[in-house]
Amino acid sequence: MKLVRKGKISYLQPSRLSTHIEAGFSTRNGGVSRPPYHSLNLSFGTEDSLPSVEGNRSNFTRSFDLSPHQLLTVTQVHGSDILLLDEPNPDLTHFLSVEVDAIVTNQPGIMIGVLTADCLPILLWHPEEKIIAAIHAGWRGAANGLIAKTVKTIQQNFNCSAADLQAAIGPGIGAHKYEVDRQVRTAFREGSGFWDEITTETRLGHWQLNLPLSCRLQLEQAGLATESIEVAEQCTCCHPELFFSYRRDKGMTGRQIGFLKLN
Question: Which of 26, 63, 176, 217 is deepest in the core (most CB within 10 A)?
Answer without folding.
Answer: 26
